[in-house]
Amino acid sequence: MLKRAHSGFSLVELVVGLAVLALLIALGVPQYATFTANARIRATSEGVATGLNLARAEAVKRNARVELVLTDDLPVEALVNALTPSTSGINWVVREWVPSTTSYNFIEGKSGAEGSGRADTTSVQIASSSVDATYDGRVVFTGFGSMTIGEQVSFQITYPAAGTCAAANGPLRCLNINVSPGGQIRICDPKVTAAKDTRAC
């Protein structure tokens, strides 16, 4: 009677295969984590830029004062007149000031937990600032589309829990959003320093 040869993997082949797989995973996981963190930074930047563009467009359309407010309060209509502005708020609200009623009309609100995962202090962070002493976390646009303050407002979007920014020789592509006094809104990369590069801040 003929014996059939059994095909399969030997123990040595299996161990070598597992070692190669473990090495590939070990090399790939940090890159994937950096990719995910950069995607969250980009999503947050685009979300805030969308809110700023909405506020400016509504100000021009309504010929009224419309503002984007960074806040830690819930971004809901019921709180539109009670929001506490914060220069590092995790949520934003777009609202219109109505002088005749001395109150605000709710236009739109967005929670930081939507999309970008900005639900707490361990995820993507926003820090906004301006050299204008009156800036308090609100970017206010007039009916002409310009800001009510005469200095640039800057939003710095980072992810400290995931690493340092490329501008500080880290792996993350942190981004800024700059709003000029005239109302121009642009996302830029603080790592890029070439004068003619449109990505530069």
Q: How do you describe this structure in short?
A:
This protein is α+β, with helices and mostly antiparallel strands. It has a single domain (about 10-190), classed as minor pseudopilin epsh fold (3-Layer(bab) Sandwich). The chain is about 25% helix and about 25% strand.
Describe it.
This protein is 26% helix and 23% strand. The chain has one helix at residues 11-62, and strands at residues 66-71, 91-98, 103-110, 125-130, 138-141, 153-158, 175-179, 185-188. The longest helix has 52 residues, at 11-62. It starts with 10 loop residues before the first helix and ends in a 13-residue tail after the last strand. The model has no long low-confidence stretch (mean pLDDT 88).
Note the main attributes of this structure.
single chain, 201 residues, alpha+beta, minor pseudopilin epsh fold, 4-stranded antiparallel β-sheet, 1 helix, 26% helix, 23% strand
Itemize the secondary structure elements and their pairings.
Blueprint: H1 11-62, E1 66-71, E2 91-98, E3 103-110, E4 125-130, E5 138-141, E6 153-158, E7 175-179, E8 185-188
Antiparallel strand pairs: 1-2, 1-5, 2-3, 4-6, 6-7, 7-8
